[in-house]
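Let's do one together. I've listed all components of the complex below, 967 residues spread over two lines.
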Amino acid sequence: MPDVKVSNLHKMFGDNVVLDNVDFTIKDGEFFTLLGPSGCGKSTTLNCIAGLEQPTSGAIAVGDTAFVDTDKKLFVPPEGRNLGMVFQSYALWPHKTIAANLAMPLQIRKVDKAQQRHLIDEALDKVGLLHLRERYPHQLSGGQQQRVALARALVYSPNVLLLDEPLSNLDAKLREQARAWLKRLQTDLGITTVYVTHDQDEALALSDRIAVMSHGHMIQVGTPTEIYETPATADVAAFVGRCNFLEATVTDTSPSGIAVKLAANGQQMAVETPEKVSVGDQVTVAVRPEKLNVLPADDVAMPGTNVISAEVLTTSYLGSRFEYDLKVGDHVVQVVNDRGGLAGPVNLSVDPDACLVYTQADVLSEDAQALLTVSH
Amino acid sequence: MTTTTTSPRRSDSPPAPGAYPAPRYRRVLGQGREVLLHWAVIILLAVLVLAPVVPTLYQSLLDRPLYEAGGVLSLDNYAKLFTEAGFGKVMLNTVLFAGLTTVLTLAIAVPMAVVVVRTKIPGGRILAAAMQWPFFISSLILGFGWITMYGPAGFVSVQVRQVLGVVPWNLYSIPGMALTEAVALAPIAYTFCAGALRQSDASLESAAQVCGAGPLRILFQVILPMLRPPIVYSSILVISMSVETLSVPLLYGQPANIQVFSTFLYRNGLQSINPDYGILGAASALILLVTISLVAVQAKLLKDAQRFVSVRGKATRPRKLDLGWLKWISLIAIVFYVVMGAFIPIAGLIFRSFTLVFSPLQSPLKTLSAANYDRIFSYAAYIQSIKNSLIVAAVGAVLVSVVALLAVMMARRSNFRYRRAAEYLALAPQAMPGIIVGIGLFWAFAYAPFGIGTFIQGSLWALIIGFGLRALPSGFGSLAPSVMQIGQELDNAARVSGADWIKTFTMILAKLLTPAFAGALVLTFVTMLKEYSPAVFLGSADTNIIGTTMLELWVQGNTGSVAALASIQIAITAAFVGLAGLFLKGHNKDA
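Okay, and this is what the predicted structure of the assembly comes out as:
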């Protein structure tokens, strides 16, 4: 199966830059996810691959076949690309039965009747809905519709499968099951898949690689682990998973790490970072809630860890764990911990290598900022 | 949902990707084949819309009739129009008529919309349905009806004179014209206001109620301010419609010698022995300028107004206010409007068609007869005019609906470069008064190349083109929302599956749009059956239609036959709409 190569994609709507120099290659058989908040350009990218939108400039090719090349004024319309696509609303044709929905692409391809029946049954069997072949879309549940849409996208063995937030209309429980099922199906078929979602959990669970997008830019491309553990920018850290951001000033630099002074309460903290900074720089220290540890105020922290004094504001019991909102100076810090029942003054401990340092970051919306600030 | 967790089954021998490649479609100059169709449609639209406009503008600048050789371009016609032709008085009358009509229309429509939609009123549903009446009845017929009942010798007027000694009103005056026109146009303004009220969020009122506001305070401080956009919008619509209307000014204004724009054109173009085409062209050009700018403003406002419609989809059931004793007064007022404005004139007209003498002085029941109908059906020319009306409406409805569907598909569902232009062209005839469409096309046919003109001129095709052009915006307007309701993703799914634009339409959208198309057919059929003003210029002795025949009979003083023809037209409309309703049942489509 071929690679998908997207190079230097630009898209403008009027003066509005929707995609700016988007460039990536999806390997054969890979499950590739475009992740980002709404309006980041991920769906536009997918639609450009599908041919539903024309990029302002750039090139897209699958294997040796060029789909778009604005330099050569080449544009293959969607019907000429032989791709399979599942839409957010499933887009099942309401006046056709399930079987007729699947038959349409085959009729267009002039596949003979017997073979059509065979392929339709096979595709429906794959998604476990063979018994519903004569039903109409509105007679199916959301989950079933989603699987029919997938069967319709696969029935003609397309080169690449495009999925536009296919799970977002399912309820939470079903979404998790469908996610696991989709992953197995994709692995079994080995089809190159491009997946668009704004749900980071979905992206982390499903993907071989993730591309994080924001404001039309592709900020980081990497495996789920890379994206989560070493986010390239504060944007990515904020979007993928939860993260605490603390403003700080650099007070000392050494080859092994740096020391910073937190703006929230003036405490010192040691941080390991590859980032090049010098004394006096303003930086943002990012720490994931699960990397922080809460200790009763009189407990002794492990040597070599930073200890920050804090005060418990609220505790939420989430069943498998506890979530704390702690007050550090005028700042709220979120911590996830196994240990419940803490109240009043506590100590926060964090390993120097669990922190990420960003030199410039303006990641939190003003609303979020206001919610995370406490008055004295 | 038990199967979600089962493992996807492996197939024995999955076909390789690309085993069934997408078909190749014929390409035209590197573009899909639909581009040819798009060009064809936009050229057709452009020719249709420009055909009446360009000759009119040209004629307005020409010192002799269009078809005479050696014409010289000048602005003399405009100068003459304002100095000699008495056009100043005409403009004044038009402004008075349009202004008064607008005020009266709003005075009827706005309170009615508020009362029916937002307050508890007995029979609210029936009242809302009753506002649909102008769909069945043309303003020409309404005019006949009003004269029959409230005219100087009308049934009601005579009755009143017997009681009071005088008739306290004069129908043949600008206020009389405006009142009739306002009664006819009120349902349009009502529709806009009622629509806005239904869409607006009911929780706004609940919020006011919680704050302790009484029903009247809510009415004036919450509901009425929300109505500002539809009021402005429908005023402009009503102004432009009263500028272009011919029926009422012609029927009322002729005897009293009150001329407005449209009757000025009618008289100068048709009734004068030696029509001055230059003046006709200049006057038409001016009216076009007025109506086009009004429609442009209205389009701009509607675009902006849509931005304010934030509540969508979520069905908030409006909590209706209780007006107490005021509701009975409102009810009486609304019933008075419907009964006096529409029901009595129309019922009177129908009754008139079955009697020979229609006056309270002698019981009309004494002269009950079918003689009026006998006369209609004993003259071939009258029968022919009914047939012509049906042919024009039927052929026209199909053609207009097809063109409108193509235009909507292109404007809303294609990447064609000039798709916005298609929409503007399809909606442009809104700004073209029927009588100007008639004059303009008349000149256009005189000018058309390859002898097309002589073939079309004086044939039913001329009427089909003229009426069709006028009905095109309604067709477009009724189809566009239906197309927009079909999610773009359904098209996209078909495209990705391998269907090109045309196949996507034939395989997916055609079926989904069938009910909407049927609705457009009904709407355009009824619209074209009622239409007559372009025929004033485009018709010939052989191509009279019901409307022009009625006018002819009216001038002859043959009111009984007019009433009979009007009743026939109403009956055809009602029968057609009824049949269509039965046929379309289940699709829940109100045309």
